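fyi for ur records
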Amino acid sequence: MIPRFAALVAGILGEFPSGWRHGHNRHHAWTNVRGEDGDQSERWDPSRRYRSRWTAWAGLFLSTQHKGWTLPASLVFLALRDGYYCWRHHRSRFVPELLAVLASLALQIAFFVALAGPGWGCLLFAWHTHLGMIYLNSAFSGNHYDLETFTPEEARMLSVEALQARTTRNYSGGWWVHYVFGGLEKQLEHHLFPHLPRHHLHRAAPWVKAFVQAQGLPYHEAPFWHCYMRVLDFHVDPPEA
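which gave:
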């Protein structure tokens, strides 16, 4: 039931469920591992370095880069990436998921065109996908960007819990953080127990914290805005590789 619901939601958003799942699973398996973690590739891109927090914010959260091109951040580009993953790794599902994506995007565009006319409607659709990507970029960048990184060889020498604890940070902040992120503010718990429903992650947190600390591992947790600023500062004045 849950995979079907996830596929329905992904289809509504114009996403490829199989492609997204492949990328997400790879991120969990290789968190902050150079050359393996596709979700963190910007972290190691030498061109994504900026002169101030403002330019870092615009470059990281408002835009995306591909082969020298700088484009507005958009859920459409995320769908293209995950469409590639779907084609390459789950080809039997590509056609039905592509049809679902096209139908979803057509319905979204039709809604905005009916609401505001052809010109403004297309702009509203573009703004809608842009805002969605800004939210995703903001929601998850502070969980990993400025923490430790590893080569694949180094990562293979670590246990699962050691890799996740050293590369993942939770957000603190009370009810509003839980409301905005829906439980995924407990990112370490999500990485260790990816199939645990989000609304139960906070229940696992005390047990996870006690376990990783007993293993001599860090339990990273900080207020959201502190994490957000650390991401910007990392790309303004990054540490030595």
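The two ends are 44 Å apart (CA to CA). thats all i got for now
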